[in-house]
Amino acid sequence: xxxxxxxxxxxxxxxxxxxxxxxxxxxxxxxxxxxxxxxxxxxxxxxxxxxxxxxxxxxxxxxx
Length: 64
Hints:
64 residues, mainly alpha, 2 helices, 77% helix, 0% strand
């Protein structure tokens, strides 16, 4: 069986979005669970934003 190739930045962004979507409408049965889910959504969103910024910065550097 062959190894999977590494994910591109676009694929990583999509996977983070998929993970966010999985948690988007979920709620915990406790306040702690709700807080963990809310934090996970914020972290996933922040990771996506960081990836986009990094990509934009790299493109700007290439254009310079």
